[in-house]
Every structure is written in C-alpha cells, then in structure tokens.
Design goal:
Length: about 130
C-alpha cells in the first residue's frame, strides 16, 4: 500500500474555519509531476481515491454518486489501471449522510475487499 496526496503541502485552514482550504488548481498542477513520477515508479494495479480532489485527478468529473460503488478503468502514469473512488472520510463532508450514498460506499468496500484479496494471491509464474 502507498498513500499519497494530490498536493505535497498543507494548504492551510479553510477561511471559514471548517476543515482545510482546498488547494487551488495551480497548486495541484505544480504538485502533479511529483505524484505522476511516484505513480510511474510504483505502477499500482489499483488506485483508491479518497474525496473529490483525488477522484478528479484520475477520473472525469462526475457526481460522486455516479462514481462511488464501481471500479473504473483509467490511465495512471501512462499505464492502464483500475480506480476505486471513495468519499472523503472527513466529518466536513456530508455526502455519507444520504442512505443511498452509504449503500454506494458499501458496494465500494466490497470491491476493495475483493481487489485486495486478488492482490494478495501469489503470482503464478510460467516454468
């Protein structure tokens, strides 16, 4: 497992005092080469995103309700991989308050469990 953020620096507190400030598109763009280089080295077979910024980094913008609960094919660092979007776990997000959204999260967690089980299997090598 490898955990990374879309940006490398803490953006500071939100001006309204609730949570962190969202990094600007410029801040995200300046950090993108670092994340892309890390992903090129790691070559993950599965990317699990947490929250809107990470989802938008790997998938076309769409409502979370259209993305969470399914595994998506994407190109990550020039390679085909799978992306599993999850909502941000922060208490600042109210997305999980809707029962339909919690059901989507349940579906996503089943996909995550299945993906981890596959990744844990020993590789079969040809003789």
């Amino acid at each position: 497992f490898y955990i990374a953020a879309v940006t490398r620096c803490y953006p500071g507190p939100h001006p309204g005092g609730r949570g962190d400030r969202v990094p600007t598109p410029g801040e995200r763009a300046r950090c993108a080469p670092w994340l892309e280089a890390e992903l090129a080295i790691i070559r993950p077979p599965l990317v699990v995103t947490l929250g809107r910024l990470a989802v938008d980094r790997f998938l076309a913008p769409a409502p979370l309700a259209d993305l969470v609960g399914r595994v998506h094919d994407a190109t990550v660092a020039g390679r085909a991989t799978r992306v599993l979007p999850l909502p941000h776990p922060s208490g600042a997000s109210g997305w999980l308050n809707a029962p339909a959204h919690r059901a989507l999260l349940d579906d996503a967690l089943v996909h995550l469990r299945d993906a981890v089980a596959v990744l844990r299997r020993p590789s079969v090598r040809a003789a």
